[in-house]
Amino acid sequence: MSSELSRRNVLFGAFGLAGLAAMSACGSTSAVSPPAGSVRQADALRRRSGQHVVTANLTPRPTTVDLGGPVVNTWAYGDTVPGPLLRARAGDLMRVQVDNQLPATTSVHWHGIALRNSMDGVPGMTQAPIGAGKPFTYEFTVPDPGTYFYHPHSGLQLDRGLHGALLVDDPADPGGYDVEWTVVLDDWVDGTGRTPEGVLKELTSSRGGGAGSGKGMDGMGMGSGKGKGMISPLLGGAGDIAYPHYLANGRVPAAPVTLTAKSGQRAKLRLINAGSDTAFRVALGGHRLTITHSDGFPVAPVTTDALLIGMGERYDVLITVGDGVFPLVALAEGKQGNALALVRSAAGTPPKTSVRPAELAKKVILSTDLTAADSVRLKTKDVDRSHDLLLSGSMTPYRWTINSKTFPDTDTLPVEEGQRVRLRFQNMSMMFHPMHVHGHTFGLVGGGARKDTVIVRPMQTVQVDLDANNPGQWATHCHNIYHAETGMMTTLSYPS
């Protein structure tokens, strides 16, 4: 391992994914805050008189979790995976006390929420890390309805059991469904004889396997262990890690959760991909899915057989439930294995854990195929500033870059309040990258979906526009947590 990688890994482990920003005196990315007045002013615009306050508590700690057969030692919020469901209405004030009982510093990032910069949960960039044995209270307004989630932004902690759903209801929601389900998808390695930190060490060591080599820790390099790379016809290079388990709501396929309804009822399904290295192709046997929202924002409804959800993305779909027991399968795209839940409306024998509904091989929708609903399209406006983000990297050495640099030495993306900003994500690698921008939502150029996380496929360019209306220093990174941890991250930076 190079001395530079050694230094970087030590610092990431101590301070988290973005902690290097505050540590790098010579790097171009720094933990510079905009004037406090501009942050307060932006936050004040989100608040209203008589604002309802929603309180919650999160206790990250070491624990033992039963995944439905495999029993693992891991870190979780309390004793459950996923963590507690948090729920509010658009416009509410969230007040969440975090009591850190981990043997390490931590943080909580509120993924997809356009909130006050100091509450974004990125150590070294927006806050000091929460010390072991210490409390911290997050307080922020949730301005937009939708499906969101929370997780640490500290090292590789996301790849443990530290994540949970955050649902923001729309008081004006007309409904149109009878039941609601939330399914959190995950890829799992912790407590199986390996840890996320051990996986990263293997990937960054000289023994790590390159694409298709099958080398690495029992196939945990870029390969299956049989010389066959993790390749997807939709995504190209589909990941770096062959996980031993894929979960739906914290359960392996041998002991799936059951989602119940009556035959003929309309169900709203909220899907969240909390995985660290895996996209999932999702289908419900015997049914079609009508996509209504992506990353919390409405889209022109599209009916499909299956959908592809990248790490950090969320979908809302509507389903008319048939009569019987049906498999909701989340296939680990380009890998071996799947997550599974059951939809039950009548008595019947559950399908096998290895079931592959025919819908998986039919029409598959990606979020880049969607169109924003008219109500959430960005207003027509000239672009004031553009930034190109060239996404590159390699397995040997294991290094992922933006514009040929690794964080914290990546160049910032300067913006000024009030500007329309265009980001051009240009993927120059053979691996897909789900790119996430903190503190903002963007619109895909040409009327595409309104989102905060978007898949950029190999050798393709995705252009997005955002309004610079939330002052601060905002992490912008690949939501493959291993790519971010080894460099694929920068900062959307308002002036100090």
How would you describe this structure to a colleague?
The protein is globular. It has helices at 3-15, 20-23, 36-46, 196-204, 481-485; strands at residues 53-58, 60-66, 71-77, 86-89, 93-99, 109-111, 135-141, 146-151, 164-169, 179-188, 231-232, 236-237, 245-248, 258-260, 266-273, 280-284, 289-294, 297-304, 306-309, 314-320, 325-332, 338-344, 364-365, 385-394, 399-402, 413-414, 420-427, 433-437, 442-444, 450-451, 453-456, 461-467, 473-478, 489-493. It is built from five helices and 34 strands. 53% of the residues are buried. The protein is mainly beta and 496 residues long.
Key structural traits:
about 500 residues, mainly beta, Immunoglobulin-like, 4 domains, 6-stranded mixed beta sheet, about 10% helix, disordered N terminus
